[in-house]
Task: structure prediction
Amino acid sequence: MSLREQFTEQLKVSMKAGDSARTSALRMIIAKLKDTDIAARPKGIDKVPDDEVLSMLRGMVKSRRESVMLYQQGNRPELAAKETAEIAVIEAFLPQQMDDSAVEAAVNGAIAEAGATSIKDMGKVMAALRAKHAAALDMAKAGALVKARLS
Result:
């Protein structure tokens, strides 16, 4: 079942269950997906593939995490809780992220594969990581680790 079908199916389930917060979050995901599809039309793409959908979902999670921090700084716990609930709904559709030891192993493997010896080779290493582990790897965390290893 594709991600699009999962969104629609989960929306139906949450509506039947009367879970208004989850329904709202799923509607937001579907709206963002439609915007992404519309933005891709000039490239000749009618519906973006699942890997771009995953990227879109990661972007949504990132923006909500930033919002949670701002709401907590602004002493708005009710809004932070709402954003946190949305993050949980969005992350349910994302693949399981690698743990720290797996990230280190992937980075070490990519450095060896690319034959990287200095910080100038960071682009090659990041490209290798993206090619192999894009779905399950936090690229920001991996980028910091690659930089530390090559410095």
Summary: The chain has a mean pLDDT of 90.
